Amino acid sequence: GQQVMQIPQYQHVQEGEDFTTYCNSSTTLSNIQWYKQRPGGHPVFLIQLVKSGEVKKQKRLTFQFGEAKKNSSLHITATQTTDVGTYFCAGRQAGTALIFGKGTTLSVSS
Amino acid sequence: GAVVSQHPSWVICKSGTSVKIECRSLDFQATTMFWYRQFPKQSLMLMATSNEGSKATYEQGVEKDKFLINHASLTLSTLTVTSAHPEDSSFYICSARVFSGTVNTEAFFGQGTRLTVV
User: Fold this and answer.
1) Rounded to an integer, what distance in angstroms lies between the CA atom of residue A90 and that of residue A33?
2) What are the start-end ranges of the H helices in A1-110?
3) What residues in A contact B50, CB-CB < 8 Å?
4) What is the pLDDT of residues A19-71, one digit of tens each?
């Protein structure tokens, strides 16, 4: 079945350093979504990517969708302590429900 | 944006009892809702897809007689954990499908329900 793999599982950075998490699907996706979950909280939608090669930015966050629509990345520039949490990618094949990656937990020390 | 309200946010119940969790779309109609389960420090695992007015579609390995899902209206889906046991303790989250432009997105999650079975 469809699998969505996400790496790394954990990442610790110093405040101000950059951070990237990668997401790979075993199958071509119709779209991919990114979520952030704080400890004890629920997933909060960040963005959805639909087009091949799409790049979207939200302030210090840059999201990319690969040309083959099988991989995606989230890059945070100059991390802040407020960026702490677990970032999930979730991909969908046409007509199916979202399949979540295992998430990347980011910790930031000041 | 669309708001999904989930209730209760946490519940403690005795082993053998049943617990009902509600998921409501507050300002939109959700023809499809999804129920997920999340173990500590793990990802969200889809349990079932709930369609208004029809039977839920369960993922492989999810016992439909144990996790009863009802989607009686366009704004409410319920998940009932029947005869709960300690291994059912988990974080249960619902989400609602919203049609945005040309694609569907389950962008909106409820707050989640932390179930502890003692």
Assistant:
1) 5
2) none
3) none
4) 999 999 999 999 999 999 998 888 888 999 999 999 999 999 999 999 999 99
